[in-house]
Amino acid sequence: MTARAGGRPGRRAVEVPPPTRQTPSLTLRDLLLTRRADVLRPIRDVLIAALVLAAPAALAAQQASLTGYAAAAAARQRAAEADAVLRPSAERARQHARALSAEPHVAGTAAQARTRDYVVNEMKRMGLETEVRAYEVWLPHAASVRVWRLAPDSLELALAEPPVPGDSTTLLPQYPTVNGQSAAGDARGEVAYVNYGLIEDYRQLDSLGVSVRGKVVLARYGRSFRGIKAREAEKRGAVALLMYSDPADDGYMQGDVYPEGPMRPPTGVQRGSVYNGQGDPSTPGYPSRPGARRVPADSMGVPRIPVVPLSYANAAELLRGVRGAAIPRGWQGGLPFRYHVGPGPVRARVQVVNDAQPYKQIWNTFGTVRGSEYPDEIVMVGAHRDGWGAGAADNVSGTVSVLEAARAIAEQVKAGRRPRRTIVFATWDAEEWGLVGSSEYVEDDSLRLLRGAVAYLNQDVAAQGSRFGGGGSPSLRATLRDVARAVRHPSGKESVYAAWRREAGVADTAEPAMGDPGGGSDFAGFYNHLGIPHSDWGFGGPSGIYHSAYDTHRWMARFGDPDFAYHATAARIGAAMLLRLANADVVPYDYVEFARTMRRYLPAVDSALTRAAVGGSSAPIAQALDRMQQAAGDFAAARDAALAAPLPKERGRRVNEALRQVERALTRPQGLRTRPWYRNVIYAADENNGYANIVFPTVGEATRTGDAALVGREIADLVARFDAATAALRRAAQAARDGTAARR
């Protein structure tokens, strides 16, 4: 997980006590939840399957209708989904997870090629059409990384993460502790502590008269994307950046550390990319096909200073001796001494040597089930296959979810039940380096996707705990909630949806909050670049092993998902979501909810306009959203009337073709002024934070400039985009009505 906006590193959740390890007798609940004996797992899987079957069967009896389906088709569809959610297996998930997390598999390595082969062979065994698509991309690997304390005394820091007793994977060779896309270099300077390295942190340093020019900057991870931290340090003249995970954030102040608990141990290191772009930086905005024009390295937008992550044990060796200015309020972390800003008197040296061949081959894999009626309409689910280590959580768990969903649907196809639309099961390479594999694919296949892609579903950290969360386009949120109602939670006591509501503490008609798709995982190419609706989901919990050598099968089996039941449940949701979208007479986008969601953002727009003193208001946007919501309601009525009888295939094709243009209309070809690759005008990652989302980014970024004329133009442009989406809804409604009057 690259983990910018919309990414969920660790999905921090309330800690859930583990199931009792020893039980005097075995009840049904014990069989469902026990960790004790492998022999019980097949029995437990059968019992979970029976519970899963009961939920949708009961729901089908209560709900004769299904959004986007004629009545007769709805009953068949619920039966198909009920069958599909029976098929993912926790035991198979465990086997996949063990195989795929057997060794560190960084993009561009032989180990990563082995994960490619594993996934392709599994999909071939399922009977899927398979494809491997290779790209040669800029991916310099570190050959050597060293950090020294030079003063007040000399010490070379031991950077590698040491093995953990009982976890054999941690004995294997590791990728060096360096940030992806770090520059090579050899830098020396006084150490300056900059808190989280945020723009506002540097403003505070300016107010203290502290400059980081010529300094080695030490920053805490968190609160902004690490690439933004690198950009801001370099912009201010730092010669190197060191980053560490403070124990206050994901170490011992949050819980017991690995191997006693799930949190980050003193020697744990968070690797990760510091590239602020997407895809191959040598081919910005176009695919890395053979013979593609490559931009020179100094034009790639990658850092030009060494950037190295440290454990908090190593950070303490530098930070403990820093003096100088007192820290501002809120800058104290969890290490057992008082922090200071510096600079100095501690001095450090940072050396990164990259390999001689910066270009590496990466491989995306695809397994395809061709649609029986609409083969050119595509529903895709994907997960990135690469990691910074063994990657049991990030992202073997997502890959396993995709594999088990694929198996569920492949078995239905073998039984003679082929989906109406094409379903593609993808695994992406080099996500951890800046969404490289998926971005290259989207740039490569953009015409086909713009024409026929119905939705993209993403699985990134699908299971590392028990607390459910979801997100994505507002148009697909109702579908995810409905599917979650019909899938039993691994606890066996309630549906996933009921557990989600209970844990979120919502009441009455309120729904659990869902994440907005600003960027940060492989959905970005589909949604933020092309405007293809997207959904994602997963199960999270306490975790401090993000991007470290300790994200292993052993950690997962002890703390993340001991029974691998949550892996299987993520796959069950995936199989049902895919079938729901692939078989619908009319794809069940909910643009009433979409418009209502947009309206909730308008008070923040007005507040920002007022603070910036640029004039204007959100009133024109509100009026456009009124028009869109009215058109969405009219479409829903026309759709439901059309589905009172079986919908003719050609009319259904026209309706769905118009619907696919709704969110395409909410992109603009020239993209954002600050980042042309981001074309979506609804959500983006904040350019100055990277983790936070910015809603209506064209308007928001214009507001920050203080240019009233620009703000006015961007509001007018956004209104025009909403009106274009409204026009697509009206075309869909008209297509749905064609023939309805004739039936009357």
Q: What shape does the CA trace take?
A: globular
Q: Strands of the biggest beta sheet: in what spatial order?
A: 1-13-15-14-16-18-17
The class by helix and strand makeup works out as: alpha/beta
The major β-sheet equals:
7 strands, mixed
Strand content: 15-25%
Number of helices: 24
Question: Share of helix among residues?
Answer: 40-55%
Cα-atom Rg, whole angstroms? 26 Å
Number of strands: 20
Residue stretches low in confidence (pLDDT < 50, at least 5 long) are: 4-62
The mean pLDDT is 92
End-to-end distance: 53 Å
Describe this entry's structure for a reader.
The protein has a seven-stranded mixed beta sheet, sandwiched between helices. The chain has a seven-stranded mixed beta sheet with strand order 3-2-12-5-6-7-9. A two-stranded parallel sheet has the order 4-8. The chain is built from 24 helices and 20 strands. A hairpin with a 7-residue loop joins strand 19 (683-685) and strand 20 (693-695). It is α/β, with parallel strands linked by helices and 744 residues long.
Short description:
The protein is α/β, with parallel strands linked by helices and 744 residues long. The chain is built from 24 helices and 20 strands. The strands form five sheets. A seven-stranded mixed β-sheet has the order 1-13-15-14-16-18-17, sandwiched between helices.
